Amino acid sequence: MSGNTSTSMIVTLGFVTALSGFLIVTAYQTTKPAIEENKRLRIQQTVLEVIKGATAYKPFVITANGDLLEATPDLKGTNVYAGYDAQGKLMGLAAEGRAQGYSGSVETIYAYSPACECITGVKVIKQTETPGLGDKVITNKDFVANFEKLDAKLDAAGKALANAIVTVKHGSKKNPWEVDAISGATISSRAIAKGLNGSAQEVLPKVVPLLSTIEGAKP
C-alpha cells in the first residue's frame, strides 16, 4: 500500500469520524427539548393522578443548603411537586422513589399528605420486572391498597421517619408503616417499599418545615 493511499484512508476515516460525532451531537441537541418536554408532561400527569383532588401542580427543588426554590432546568437538588385544587389549596406533595428490583430499577412517584402525615398514593413510572410477576406491583389491587394511608410520620426531632417503611411477608402486616408484599413478587414489593423509605427519609425532614411556604405558593 502506497503512502498516498494510506494518507487518503486516514483522512477519509478522520472525516467520517468527525461527521459521525457532529451528527450525534446535532441529533442530541435537536431531540433534547422534546425529550425534556415529554418528561415534564409525564411527571405532571402522574403528580396530578397521585395527589388526590389536585388540579394543578408546582415543581420545587430543595437545594443542598435547604432552600426551597421554584424548579428550573439547571437547578440541582431534591425534586418536590406540590399539588393544589382549583381554589389554590395545597392538597399534598409528591416526590420520586427509586430502588433496585429483580431485573432493574423500579421508579415511582408517591403522594404525601401533610394532614395525615402519610403516603396516600403511589404510581410506578418505570420498571423492567418479569412480566406477570413484577408487574403485579402495578395491577394488584391489594398491594396498591398498601399506599392509601401508609404511615410516614417524622420522629420527635424531625430528622427522620419515626418508623422506617418496610416490607413484610404477605398476610403478616400489623403496623401502618408496613407494606404487605405480593406473594410471588417479593423482590418487586421490597423495591417499592425501599424506594419510598429512602426518598421519604431524605425528603420529608427537609420539606415539612417548609410547608407554610409551599401552601402560600401559587401553581
TrEMBL record:
Residues 101-203 form the FMN-binding domain. Its EC number is 7.-.-.-. The keyword Membrane applies. It is found in: Cell inner membrane. InterPro entries: FMN-bd, Ion_transpt_RnfG/RsxG. Part of a membrane-bound complex that couples electron transfer with translocation of ions across the membrane. This is Ion-translocating oxidoreductase complex subunit G. It comes from Thiothrix fructosivorans.
